[in-house]
Each structure stands twice: as structure tokens, then as C-alpha cells.
Amino acid sequence: MSYELCIGDRAYSSWSLRGWLLLEAFGLKASVTLAPLYSDDFARVLEGFAPARTVPALRLPEGVVVADSLAMAEELASRHPEAGHWPKDPRARAVARALAAEMHSSFVALRSHCPMNLRVSYEECAPPPEVLADLARIEALWAWARRESGSTGPWLCGDYSAADAFFAPVAARVAGYNLPMGAEAMDYVAAHLAHGPFRRWRAMGMVSGPDLPFYRRDWPTRPWPGPTPMAAEPCDGPSLNDACPYSGRPVTDFLRVEGRVLGFCNPFCRDKTVADLAAWPQAMSLLKA
Q: Which residues of 47-58 are buried (b: 16+ CB within 10 A; e: fewer)?
């Protein structure tokens, strides 16, 4: 079964992050087409995903395009019930659906004041009362979800679900703008920052596409609060591997980590790995071999 996902810039498109997680975090694969934000190419690329006018947009194997992340969640769940987009328990499933729906349609103040930017974390963003009210509502929802579903792990309704995918960009905003939340809520944010699929998306966002001026803020910055990446850097070959761990193609670009050289089939494969090597099981397996 083949899917094609159209996304915006990974560092900035929170809606695209949701759509990608609905596939990657549930073991589903898709080819990816990029529609660069704030460019003439955005509308041109989306013409190939009609009737979509926004990202993400998912082309199904039979050619139909689903152009909304909530619709994507429901369609993928119906096609892949084994993947676990929604909890099996009816009570937890109802909670997860309610969470996803409110996240999908609410929190305009938070979205406006703190647009997602995975390339930076600010020390302070002076959140106005409307943003603090959004944060209070989100924190109350997260606590309610745990009570109603009985979740005792890192996620809101038991195992990772579509509800968590929908709140991943909120975790990114809390991390990126150093927003105030309580200890339990911050533990949930930390779970997202350490989540393998989230880390892989951010690693790609760090090295794919230009910095967009719309997202720049003149505020003091701090280190990203997620896991610290392994120290790696581009270098010359040869490498200990002849085939790219992602594509299987011959290697042409190289990085050095822990005194060893790994090879990749193109600069993007290398650079996304340099950005956060531990997020990529294929690359880590080379180090463990």
C-alpha cells in the first residue's frame, strides 16, 4: 500500500508534523513531497494534490487526496486498525478523539504568539494572558485525559495515539518558547522531545530548507531542551560501510562520530544524521555492528 504525503517546511509546519507522525509513529511509510512555505512553489506543488489547499495532504493508494490531519487520522485508523492510532479501550478512545478534535480547532493565541520553530529555543517570549489561558486549558486537558483513561505511562491515553501526535507541536512550542507549565505537563513535553519519530522530524528540519524570516524573533535564546545530540561532523571518506543505511545506495558523503566514519548516499542523509545521530536506528546499527 503506497501513500504520498505533501508537507511544508519541517522546521516550521506544525500541521505537517502531525500528518507525518500519523504515518511514521505508527509504522506506516509514505513518499514525501515538499511544498515550501511562503514561496511561489507552494501553490504549484499543491496543484498536484487537488483539492488540497493546505498541508499536510495525503494521497491514498487509489489516488484520492485527504487534505486535513484529523481526516487523515480517521482514514489511516480505519485502513490500519492494527497500527493503534486510537486506543482499543472505548473510554480511552473517546478521550483521545476529544483531545485531537479540540487541539485541531482551538488555541489560536498560542499558535499566533508561538509559531512552531524547531531550530531555536528562546529564554523568554513574554506570553500574554490569552496564551497563558491556552496553556492552562491544555494542561487541564492533559490531566483530565490521564484520569479518564487511567494512563500511567508517558502518553495521554495509554500507548502513543493520534491524540499525542496532535499535541506534538504543542510540546515543540513549549520547548521552543520556554512556556510555563507544571511538572506533570513538562514530563509529557519531555516525552515528545525524546520520542524517536519527533527527533527524526526535527533532525530533518534542522538541515532542510532556509531560515524563514516570518518565524524569527529578537529574543535571547537557550539550548534546545531535548536530548543532547551525539557529537558528529562531516568529513571525508572512506567509511566503514559501503551502502547508505537508509537507501542502500553507494556512499558519497561522510560523517565522523566517536572516531569512526559513516557513509551516506547524499548530503541530506548525512546532514540529518549529523543533526541527531541517535534518532536514526539505521545509523546507530552501524556503530553497534
A: eebeebebbbbb
Q: Write the CB contacts of 272 (distance below 8 Å, at least 6 apart in sequence).
A: 200, 203, 204, 206, 207, 208, 280
**Tens of pLDDT along 31-85?**
999 999 999 999 999 999 999 999 999 999 999 999 999 999 999 999 999 999 9
SS3 39: coil
Rg value, the chain, Cα: 19
Q: Look at the domain 90-200 and name its fold.
A: Glutathione S-transferase Yfyf (Class Pi); Chain A, domain 2 (1.20.1050)
Q: How many CB atoms neighbour CB 113 within 10 A? A: 18
Q: Please name the residue ranges forming H helices in 11-56.
A: 14-24, 40-47
pTM: 0.97
Q: Is 234 helix (H, G, I), strand (E, B) or coil?
A: strand
Instruction: List the CATH code of the domain at 4-81.
Output: 3.40.30.10
Rounded Cα gap, residues 143 and 124, in angstroms:
25
CA atoms within 13 A on the CB side of 165: 27
Residue-range domain boundaries for the chain: 4-81, 90-200, 232-288
Please report, as a single letter, which amino acid is at residue 14: S
pLDDT higher than threshold 90 for residue 1: no
